[in-house]
Amino acid sequence: xxxxxxxxxxxxxxxxxxxxxxxxxxxxxxxxxxxxxxxxxxxxxxxxxxxxxxxxxxxxxxxxxxxxxxxxxxxxxxxxxxxxxxxxxxxxxxxxxxxxxxxx
Length: 104
Known about the structure:
By secondary structure, this protein is an all-alpha fold. Helices cover 69% and strands 0% of the residues. 6% of the residues are buried.
C-alpha cells in the first residue's frame, strides 16, 4: 500500500497548515464543479430541454454574478410566467427555470 488515502490523498501527506487549507479549498471547488456538471447533464438529458446551444450559453450568462436570493427570485418569477396564459415558449422557460433552480 502506498499510504495515500484514496479519499483524501495529498491532504493526509501535507503537514503544513497552509498546504492543508489549499487542499481543502481545492476539494470544495472540485465538488462544486462536479455538482454543476451533474446539474448540466441532468438538464441536457431532458428531451424537453432542446434549446439551441448558443441560446443556452446566453441563458447561463444571465445567472452570472447573481446571489442565491436573486436566483431564487428569478426562479419564482419564471414559475409565475409559466402559470400565466399567453404566447410564451414553454420549453425555453422551463429550461431556464431548471437551470436557475440547480444553481441555488
